[in-house]
Design goal:
heterodimer; A: 577 residues; alpha/beta; 20 helices; 19% strand; B: 288 residues; 10 helices; 31% helix; globular; binds thiamine diphosphate; binds iron/sulfur cluster; OFOB (chain B)
C-alpha cells in the first residue's frame, strides 16, 4: 500500500472526516458519497461514532475509486478534522502522506507529521455566508476541490439535495460548497490527491445504500408485512426504514413496549398469516429468547434480524462486534431447529433477508439474519437488486374440517393453516401438544413431537447456502470468515497476493454447509477471522463440522476490521507457521 | 345457531371441582352462542395458568402462548386479520403480573379485542402464591406473614389510561356476567372484563361467600361516559362494584395504523407489490 510515486498506481483515495456529534459529519458523508457516485466514481463509506447526541468524536471513512471498493482501511489520504479534538481521535491513522484540511488552529496539531496541511477557514467562510451551521458544507466543497471534481456538477447536486428547504437555505448551501471549493483553489494542493481514475456512467445506474436499507428492502422483497420492534442501536435503522415505507409497501411497523412484546406480536402476526419480523440487537434479543423458544414450539415462522454490537450487557452501544453468534445459536430453552444467515455483502443482505422469509415459512422455524453495526452503517454502490430474482414462496394451506395443525409427517413439516382460511380450526400451544394442538402430558406424544420438530431441522439441510470460496481452488491456506468481514478479508487477500491462500466466507453459519469438513480439511493451514474475542465461529465449526481451524485472528475493540488489520494479522500468522 | 357449537364433547378439564373457572367457561360459551359468533372466526388467546387453559375447552381457533404474553399476539392477530373476533383470556397473575407492562400498553394501543381476566387473587397453577390482586394480609406459603403489597387495581389503572371499555363481573352471577361480556365483545376497541373467580383450592380468603358479601352492582345512576365517576367507583374498596364502569368509543389500533384506510383486505391476504418495490429500489440510484 505504501506508494511513493503517488497517484500513478493509486487505486483509491481514502478520505476521513472527523468531528463531534452534532457537527454534521453524517451530512458530509451523505453528500460526498452521493456527489462522488453521481460523478461516476465507486464509493464506500462507513462511520464509527460515540453513544451520545452532542460532542465526542465521530468519524466517517470514505473511499473513492475507479474500481469497486467495499472495505474499510486504516489509511487516510485526506483527513478533514472539523474540530480541535478530531486530530487526536484519529492520530494513530495519520501518516506523512496524509493531507490534512481544516481550520488553521486545528491543522496546527503536533500529531500531524506531514507538512501537507491545508488551512481553510471553514467557519469564517460559513459565517460570511449565513452562519456557522454551513461549515460542514464548506468542508464538502473543500474536499470536492481537492479531488478535482467539477464545481458546477457539485453545486447542482447540492442544490438538488437541499431542494426541499427554503430557497435561502438552498442558496447558502450552494455558496458554502463554492466557498470551500474556491478556498482550496487558492492553495498549493498536492497533485496526487486529484482523482485520475476514469468515472463510469455505469456507476450512476447502480444503487448506493446502507446495510440497514439492504436488509429493509430484502424484508419487503421477502413479503414482510409485519414488523414489531423496540429501538436499539444498531438495529433501529431497519425498523425506521420499514416504518417510513410501510404504508406504500404494505408493512405494518409497530414500536412495541419492549422486545418481549415485539417478538410475541410477531409470532401472533405469523400465526394469523402475516410474514413477520423483528429487528433488534444483543440486549433486546436477550429479552426475546423466550419468544424464540415459543416460535420453535408453536412452529410459527418468524424472521429475526439481530444487528450485533459489543456486549456483555449494554457494552459499547454504537460499536461493532460479531459476538452474538452463540447467543443466536442457543437462544431459547429446549431443542428445536433454526436457520442463521450472516450476510457479508449488501447483495447478500438483500437476497438472504428475502430468502429468510421463504425458509422460515417453508420449515416453520425462526430464521435469523445476523448483521452488525459495521454492516448496518456501511454504504457502497452496487448493481441494482432485481426483485424479479426473488419469489415470495407461501406455504399456507386452506384447512379442512379435520385439520390438525401438528399432524405428524415424515419430514416433520405439518401443513400450516391460518384462522379464517378454510373450514378447520387452527390451535397452537406453548405446552407440549397433540396433533390437534391441545395440551398433553402423554409422554409418548412428547417424544413424537420432539422428533417431528427435529425432523424439520434435518429437512432444511437441503436448503443450506454454500459458503463462497474466493481465490485459488487448489489453496494450501484457507482464511475462513463469516458475516460482515467479507469485503475486508477479500481485499486483504488480494493485497497480499498469495497464490496459495483462499478465502471461505459463510453467509449461512447454521446449519453449516456439508462441504465444510472437506473444504477445511483440504487446507494445510486454516485461520478464522472474526470480530469477537473467543472465536465463536471456530468453535461452531469444530462442534458442527468436526474439524479444527488452526488459528484465529480476532478483533474486539469495538471497531470493524480494516484491510491493514487483516493483512498484518494474517502475515504474522503465516510467518509463524 | 346451535347451542353446542363451542362444545368440545367429553374432554378432561384440568380444573378442581367447584372452581370458579367452570361458570366462566359456561357463561362465555353461552355469550358467544347468543352473539352468533362463528367459531371459525374466533381466536382465543391466552397465557399460562389455570385460567389460561380455557381455550382448550372451547371449540375455536386458539393461541395458547407464554405466561403473561397473551396481549401482544392478540393485538397482532387482530391487526393482521381484522375480520376475526379476538379474545385474550387469562388469569390475574398472567395479565397483571407477568404481563403488567403489556396490559398498560395494550390499553394505550387500543386494539379491537376483548380482554377477560379471571381474577382469583391467587396463583392457582403454581399452587397458591400471592397474585397482584391478592388482598393485604393474605397468607400463602411464600407470603408467610401475609401479603404486604398494595393490591393492583386493574380497573382504576385502565380508567386512568383512558381504556376504551372497562367492566367487572363475578363468576357467581352468570346472567349479569353474560350481559357484560356481550357488551364487551360487541364493543369496538380494547375491552377489559375483570371477572371475580373463587379458587376453592388455594384461596380460602376470597371464597364464593366472600365475593357475595363484598360486591354490588352499579345502577342506572352511573354514567359510563363519566371518567371521573368511573375512577371513583373503581377505587372503592369497602364493597366492590360490578358492571360496566367506563366506555370511551374511539378508533382502534388497526384503524389507526392506516393499513386498512384504502385497502380493506387483511394483511394476510396481501402480496408484495413488485412494482412499488422496484420503484423504491430505484430511488437508491438517484442520490436525491
Ligand atoms: C415465564 C414463566 N414464569 C413462571 C411460570 C410459572 N407459572 C405458571 S402459571 C403462573 C401463575 C398463574 O397465575 P394466574 O395468572 O393468576 O392464573 P391461575 O392459575 O390462578 O388461573 C406461573 C407463575 C411460567 N409458566 N412462565
Ligand atoms: S387451583 Fe384454584 S383456580 Fe385452579 S382449578 Fe383449582 S380451584 Fe380453580
Amino acid at each position: 500500500m505504501k506508494d511513493p510515486k503517488g497517484m500513478a498506481t493509486r487505486r483509491d483515495v481514502s478520505i476521513v472526516l472527523c468531528g463531534q456529534a452534532g457537527q454534521g459529519v453524517q451530512t458530509v458523508e451523505t453528500l460526498l458519497t452521493r456527489i462522488l457516485k453521481t460523478a461516476g466514481y465507486h464509493v464506500f463509506a462507513t462511520k464509527e461514532y460515540m453513544s451520545r447526541v452532542r460532542g465526542g468524536a465521530n468519524s466517517t471513512t470514505i473511499r473513492v475509486s475507479g474500481k469497486r471498493v467495499s472495505a474499510l482501511v486504516d489509511r487516510m489520504d485526506v483527513l478533514v478534522p472539523l474540530n480541535a479534538g478530531a486530530v487526536a481521535h484519529v492520530a494513530e491513522r495519520l501518516s506523512p502522506q496524509t493531507v490534512v484540511v481544516g481550520e488553521r488552529e486545528v491543522v496546527a496539531d503536533e500529531a500531524i507529521e506531514s507538512n501537507r496541511t491545508l488551512a481553510v477557514p471553514f467557519t469564517e467562510i460559513a459565517t460570511e455566508i449565513g452562519g456557522k451551521i454551513y461549515s460542514n458544507v464548506v468542508a464538502v466543497g473543500a474536499v470536492a476541490g481537492l479531488l478535482g471534481l467539477d464545481l458546477d456538477a457539485v453545486a447542482t447536486y447540492v442544490q438538488r439535495f437541499f431542494a426541499k428547504k427554503s430557497s435561502e437555505i438552498v442558496a447558502n448551501n450552494v455558496k458554502a460548497v463554492q466557498g470551500g471549493f474556491d478556498a482550496i483553489g487558492k492553495l498549493d494542493v498536492p497533485n496526487e490527491i486529484r482523482l485520475t481514475f476514469k468515472p463510469s456512467a455505469k456507476v450512476n445506474d447502480e444503487l448506493l445504500l446502507s446495510g440497514a436499507e439492504a436488509v429493509g428492502l430484502g424484508a419487503i422483497a421477502g413479503g414482510c408485512n409485519f414488523v414489531s420492534s423496540y429501538p436499539m442501536s444498531p438495529s433501529t435503522g431497519v425498523l425506521t426504514f420499514l416504518a417510513q415505507h410501510g404504508l406504500e409497501q404494505g408493512v405494518l411497523a409497530e414500536q412495541a413496549e419492549d422486545e418481549i412484546a415485539a417478538i410475541n406480536m410477531a409470532i401472533g402476526a405469523s400465526y394469523a398469516g402475516a410474514r413477520a419480523m423483528v429487528t433488534t440487537s444483543g440486549g433486546g434479543f436477550a429479552l426475546m429468547t423466550e419468544g424464540v423458544s415459543l416460535a420453535g414450539m408453536l412452529e410459527c415462522p418468524v424472521v429475526i434480524h439481530l444487528a450485533q454490537r459489543p456486549g456483555p450487557a449494554t457494552g459499547l452501544p454504537t460499536r461493532t462486534e460479531q459476538a452474538d453468534l452463540e447467543l443466536a445459536l442457543y437462544a431459547g430453552h429446549g431443542e428445536f431447529p433454526r436457520i442463521l444467515f450472516a450476510p457479508g455483502t449488501l447483495e447478500q443482505a438483500f437476497y438472504l433477508t428475502q430468502k429468510a422469509f421463504n425458509l422460515a415459512d417453508k420449515y416453520q422455524v425462526p430464521a435469523f439474519i445476523l448483521t452488525d453495526q459495521h454492516l448496518m452503517d456501511s454504504y457502497y454502490n452496487l448493481k441494482a437488486f432485481d426483485p424479479a430474482r426473488t419469489k415470495v414462496e407461501k406455504h399456507i394451506v386452506k384447512t379442512t374440517k379435520d385439520y390438525r395443525r401438528y399432524e405428524l409427517t415424515r419430514n416433520g413439516i405439518s401443513p400450516r393453516g391460518i384462522p379464517g382460511y378454510g373450514s378447520g380450526l387452527v390451535a397452537v400451544d406453548s405446552d407440549e401438544h397433540d396433533e390437534e394442538g391441545h395440551i398433553t402430558e402423554d409422554l409418548d406424544v412428547r417424544v413424537a413431537m420432539v422428533d417431528k420438530r427435529l425432523a424439520k431441522g434435518e429437512a432444511l439441510r437441503k436448503d443450506i447456502v454454500r459458503p463462497e470460496l474466493v481465490g485459488p481452488k487448489d489453496y494450501k491456506r484457507l482464511v475462513i470468515c463469516w458475516g460482515s468481514t467479507y469485503h475486508v478479508v477479500k481485499e486483504a487477500l488480494g493485497e497480499m497476493g498469495r497464490t496459495d491462500t483462499a478465502m471461505l466466507h459463510y453467509s449461512q453459519v447454521y446449519p453449516l454447509h456439508p462441504s465444510t469438513a472437506d473444504l477445511i480439511g483440504k487446507a494445510r493451514k486454516t485461520v478464522a477471522v472474526e470480530g469477537n474475542a473467543t472465536g465463536q465461529f471456530r468453535k461452531l465449526i469444530r462442534l458442527h463440522a468436526g474439524v479444527d481451524v488452526d488459528e484465529g485472528l480476532v478483533k474486539y475493540d469495538g471497531l470493524g476490521f480494516t484491510v491493514e488489520d487483516v493483512v498484518e494479522g494474517l502475515t504474522e500468522i503465516i510467518n509463524h507457521q | 345457531m346451535a347451542t353446542d357449537v363451542f362444545e368440545m364433547g367429553d374432554i378432561d378439564i384440568a380444573w378442581c371441582p367447584g372452581c370458579g373457572n367452570f361458570p366462566i367457561l359456561k357463561t362465555l360459551k353461552e355469550t358467544l352462542t347468543e352473539l352468533a359468533i362463528d367459531p371459525k372466526q374466533l381466536v382465543m388467546v391466552s397465557g399460562i395458568g389455570q385460567a389460561a387453559k380455557i381455550p382448550h375447552y372451547l371449540k375455536c381457533h386458539f393461541f395458547n402462548g407464554l405466561h403473561g404474553r397473551a396481549l401482544p399476539p392478540a393485538t397482532a392477530i387482530k391487526a393482521v386479520n381484522p375480520k376475526l373476533t379476538v379474545i385474550a383470556e387469562s388469569g390475574d397473575g398472567d395479565m397483571y403480573g407477568e404481563g403488567g407492562n403489556h396490559f398498560i400498553h395494550c390499553i394505550r394501543r387500543n386494539p379491537d379485542i376483548t380482554n377477560i381476566v379471571h381474577d382469583n387473587m391467587v396463583y392457582g397453577l403454581t399452587k397458591g402464591q400471592a397474585s397482584p390482586t391478592s388482598r393485604r394480609g393474605f397468607k400463602t406459603p411464600v407470603q408467610v406473614a401475609g401479603v404486604i403489597l398494595e393490591p393492583f387495581n386493574p380497573l382504576a389503572v385502565a380508567i386512568a389510561l383512558d381504556a376504551s371499555f372497562v367492566a367487572r363481573a363475578s363468576s357467581g352471577d352468570r346472567e349479569q356476567t353474560k350481559e357484560i361480556l356481550k357488551r364487551a365483545i360487541r364493543h369496538k376497541g380494547y375491552a377489559l372484563v375483570d371477572i371475580f373467580q373463587p379458587c376453592v383450592t388455594f384461596n380460602k380468603l376470597n371464597t364464593y361467600q366472600w365475593f357475595k358479601d363484598h360486591v354490588y352492582y352499579l345502577d342506572d345512576s352511573h354514567d359510563p361516559s363519566d371518567r371521573t365517576a368511573a375512577f371513583a367507583r373503581a377505587t372503592e374498596t369497602d364493597r366492590l362494584p360490578l358492571g360496566v364502569f367506563y366506555v370511551h368509543p374511539k378508533d382502534s389500533f388497526e384503524e389507526n395504523t392506516q393499513m386498512y384506510r384504502e385497502d380493506k383486505r387483511p394483511l394476510c391476504e396481501r402480496d408484495v407489490d413488485v412494482g412499488r418495490l422496484a420503484a423504491l429500489i430505484d430511488t437508491f440510484k438517484m442520490a436525491g
